[in-house]
Design a protein that fits this description.
23% of the residues lie in helices and 32% in strands. It is α+β, with helices and mostly antiparallel strands. It has two domains: 4-116, no CATH class; 135-201, no CATH class. The strands form two sheets. The chain has an eight-stranded antiparallel β-sheet with strand order 4-5-6-7-11-10-9-8. Strands 1-2-3 form a three-stranded antiparallel β-sheet, with no helix packed on it. The protein is globular and about 55 Å long.
């Protein structure tokens, strides 16, 4: 699992992804496509079979698997190199990867994908959960839930879905005195809290039980 500082810094990366997607839409409407790799029907079908975004799994999203090279993914999916900050004053190398018009931000280390960051509700797990889902749905779908906090933000991960973490709309101020117990007692996170982002990472902290 990410350290709290890196966890919270994802909000900046997600804001970057949202603005990047808007810029791309604006350039598309003006007849100016971004400098993407990959083209053609066969490649597009391999990237997004039947025109649908692939499922989020513990290993990645479709061809964009943790450990895959951006070069290989770019053979089938439109990709665009970028840089962004995770809030530590360091510019990270990344790539925006497009699946059937929906985009994911990848953190890239030595040419390979080490993390995928998602703010688009089109991307769902095999049980249909993603951005917009409630904590109650996460608990019902995947069992035991673990939590972490930092700088007023709450994130969770699940026993039944390793290496995938979910950022929530719940802030520590919403939890009152229970905010100090989130890591030890994630039951204090309300069932009504909703997912605002998710990310797939190289190796998460285990969340035992079911």
């Amino acid at each position: 699992m990410l350290g709290n500082g890196r966890l919270i810094a994802l909000a900046g990366a997600l804001a970057f992804l949202t603005s990047a997607c808007q810029r791309d839409r604006d350039s598309d409407s003006a007849g100016q496509r971004p400098n993407d790799t990959a083209a053609g029907g066969v490649a597009a079908e391999a990237c997004a079979p039947n025109g649908r975004v692939p499922t989020v799994t513990s290993g990645g999203i479709g061809l964009a698997r943790i450990g895959a090279t951006v070069r290989d993914v770019g053979q089938s999916c439109a990709t665009r190199d970028t840089t962004f900050s995770l809030g530590e004053g360091v510019q990270e190398d990344g790539a925006v990867i497009e699946f059937a018009g929906h985009r994911v931000l990848a953190l890239v280390e030595n040419g390979t994908i080490s993390r995928l960051i998602v703010a688009d509700s089109a991307f769902r797990t095999e049980r249909g959960l993603g951005v917009g889902s409630t904590v109650a749905q996460l608990r019902e779908g995947y069992g035991r839930l673990c939590g972490a906090v930092g700088e007023g933000t709450v994130a969770v991960w699940l026993a039944g879905l390793p290496n995938v973490s979910f950022g929530l709309d719940t802030r520590l101020s919403d939890l009152g005195s229970a905010s100090t117990r989130v890591s030890d007692d994630p039951s204090v996170i309300p069932d009504t809290a909703r997912v605002t982002s998710l990310w797939v990472i190289t190796e998460g902290v285990a969340c035992g039980g079911s």
